[in-house]
Request: fold
Amino acid sequence: MKKILVVCGNGLGSSFIVEMNVKKILNELGIEAEVDHTDLTTSKSENADFFLGSTEIVENLEDGNRNVIKLNNLMDKNELRTAIEANLKGA
Reply:
């Protein structure tokens, strides 16, 4: 099962809301994945198949090996759905 880690600066409010939205969208699309949220510092030592967060935050995670999904607006459910479909459908 794929693991998605939602990353934000503090790993509290916004990343938790996005985690809930990701779970809902995955369910609607029939995609199984483990979803969790964390702060930027912790995420650097975490393992996941996909790291999802705002452009400013996740750029700090890119190392050439990680699958980083950048969002312009974390709260935009349409952008989130599009990103999930583009990166996880068939993965």
User: Anything to note?
Assistant: Helices lie at 13-29, 40-43, 55-58, 77-88. The CA atoms of residues 68 and 78 lie 18 Å apart.
